[in-house]
Amino acid sequence: MATRIIISSIAFLFHLLLVILSSTTETVFASTVPKQQLLDKVSALPGQPPVRFSQFSGYVTVNEKHGRALFYWLTEASDLPHNKPLLLWLNGGPGCSSVAYGASEEIGPFRINRTGSSLYLNKYSWNAEANLLFLESPAGVGFSYTNTSSDLKDTGDNRTAEDALIFLIRWMARFPQYKYRDFYIAGESYAGHYVPQLAKRIHNYNKAYSRPIINLKGFIVGNAVTDNHYDNIGTVTFWWTHAMISDRTYKSILKYCNFSEEEGQSDKCDEAVNYAINNEFGDIDQYSIYTAACKVPQKPNVLRLKNTLLRRRVVSGYDPCTENYAEKYYNRPDVQKALHANVTGIPYKWTACSDVLIKNWKDSEDSMLPTYKELIAAGLRIWVFSGDTDSVVPVTATRFSLSHLNLPIKTKWYPWYSGNQVGGWTEVYEGLTFATVRSAGHEVPLLQPQRAFILFRSFLAGKELPKS
After folding, report:
1. How far apart, in Å, do the first and last CA atoms of the chain sit?
2. Does residue 437 sit in helix, strand or coil?
3. Residues 163, 386, 390, 458: which is the catalytic one?
4. Is residue 27, in this structure, part of any structural domain at all?
5. Bridging pattern class, strands 55-63 and 119-121
């Protein structure tokens, strides 16, 4: 009996010691983590399936005077997050939400069901390979806000890049575990401006440090707005070669549209383009021309890409109504509370894209090619990819633009594989890799998630796409 009591006492003391040590460890850990990081932790989202990874979301103020604050959502890697790089994802528009598209339709771990009542897992989430940081940028997009209403009328490329850099610097202070971590940027569409412009700002910022806090290694962009002149020529070429417009309309556009003009086109150019869109395209999803268009009535929307011919509704994908599900889900008060979003009571509903920003975009660089040259010279890893069924920023537009970088070919054009199927085609240049993704539209990871995942995994590894 005495022996049993002694053993029992020893077991109790051992258990008590473990509890004390565990409590002490948690206290020490909590004391070393910035308070705001702890406050930003997301326990779970409404209707979310169980997951092993941590999530954080909230606001980072980027301009105190104007009251501009950007909303972020971090979904850490599903396995060994401390050993994985950090990836910042930006959607374009300009004025569209990375939460609506990147996080909820493309590369994020969750998908939203049709009723907006619950979430399910994305089998090909990029957080299998990286920690994913989604940023709603600039202020006025999604949950990001400004207390200065005039900010919504004079936003452009420069302020967007400046605020994004300030966001990253302050976010790293809140999440010191990501300082010095390998860092990449990704995005699509008008993020063809955002991504290289931010990369350039980070590169210049890092020159002051022997060991950069923002350890930028490279970037990857899809169906990216690159150069106004060559993008437009490539877009019209895509329309004609894919039988979307007649020979007559094609010739009219080439005759009357001056693709080098900095301001508006002539009336005859507008007439030719509008005739094509309104009379020859038909009722198709212009972002994925071979898949069904969403038949649920939506308010008309304008996709404004400065100095281009493109004026269409906002992005949609293979399930062409997915953005509707996002608008249902993210307008739920319980979802906003779980995400620490809309804490100031924004006087409008959360939307996938901001009409005000799209219509009032100010400064926009005519060409990103000089920036590409600068960043290639800096030694960054740069990949550009195109879904080949997108007619908004099509593969021909990107190829026309990139061809004017005149880069030496390192690995000649070849088909790359996803399983036993051709996933697309690729060519590797000195300083840049270009790849197409077969049967994908504007939102490549939505239309072809497995192929997009292989593309991303190859990019992170710095390896060429699989040849077999």
Report:
1. 71
2. strand
3. 390
4. no
5. unpaired
The mean-pLDDT minimum among 8-22, 316-330, 432-446, 453-467 falls in 8-22
Q: What's the mean pLDDT in 281-298? A: 84
Q: Has residue 243 been placed in a domain?
A: no
Do residues 382 and 431 touch, judged by C-beta distance below 8 A? yes
- Interior CA angle at 155 toward 151 and 160, to 5°? 110
In a domain, 310, yes or no: no
H/E stretch holding 452 reads helix 449-461
Question: What are 212-233's pLDDT values in tens digits?
Answer: 899 999 999 999 999 999 999 9
Closest CA to 451 of 414, 415, 422: 422
Name residue 55's beta-bridge partners. Answer: 42, 75
Strands 86-90 and 119-121: unpaired
Task: Specify the pLDDT at position 308.
Answer: 43
Task: Name residues whose C-beta falls within 8 Å of residue 62's C-beta, 6 or more positions apart in sequence.
Answer: 68, 69, 70, 139, 163, 166, 167, 170
CATH number, residue 140: 3.40.50.1820
Is-catalytic flag, 363? no
User: Total structural domains in the chain?
Assistant: 1
Q: Which of 125, 189, 386, 418 is catalytic?
A: 189
Residue 410's Cα: distance from chain center in Å? 28
Residue 84: which domain range?
42-227+364-461
Catalytic residue check, 189:
yes
Mean pLDDT of the chain: 89
Two structure tokens written together for 367: 């060409």
Single pTM value for the model: 0.89
Is 276 a member of any domain?
no
The CA distance from 356 to 331, in Å, is 19
Active site residue 390: yes
Q: Residue 302 pLDDT more than 60? A: no
Q: What backbone phi and psi angles, to 5 degrees, belong to 436? A: -100, 155
List alpha helices for 331-386, DSSP H. Answer: 333-338, 355-359, 369-377
